[in-house]
Amino acid sequence: MLPQLVKKVVANNPKKLANLIDLVNLPSTLRDFVGQSQISRLGCFTRVWSYIKANNLQDSNNKNVVNCDEKLKRILLGRFQVELAELPALIKLHFPKEPK
Predict the structure, then answer these.
(1) What's the gap between Cα 32 and its chain centre?
(2) How many alpha carbons fall within 13 Å on the CB side of residue 61?
């Protein structure tokens, strides 16, 4: 069930939802991390979040910060720490812009 705000955004601009769920050919760095040649932005974010949780990469003092290991650093621009709020934007950089 989608939250009311998400339903409103999708109803007003269905392209936003399409950009999240359309399959895209991945660049090699992201392909190695995800293990697939095609995935949606939403699917990719879910895989990254699962990896962070499975490897206990959230900072123990501040759960809003992720301490990147070598594998995660490759896809997050080589950064040692990343705020959770920055994750979607950093992942989005790997996906090509849709031509207008």
Answers:
(1) 14
(2) 1
Q: Which residues does 57 contact at the CB level (< 8 Å), separation at least 6?
A: 51, 66, 67, 68, 69, 72
Q: Is the pLDDT score of 36 beyond 50?
A: yes
- Given a cut of 60, whether residue 59 has pLDDT beyond it is yes
Question: Which run of H or E residues covers position 82?
Answer: strand 81-83
Rounded distance, CA 56 to CA 51, Å? Answer: 8
Output the pTM of the full model: 0.73
Q: Record the tokens describing residue 50, joined without a space.
A: 């699962």
Per the CB < 8 A criterion, the answer to whether 9 and 19 are in contact is no
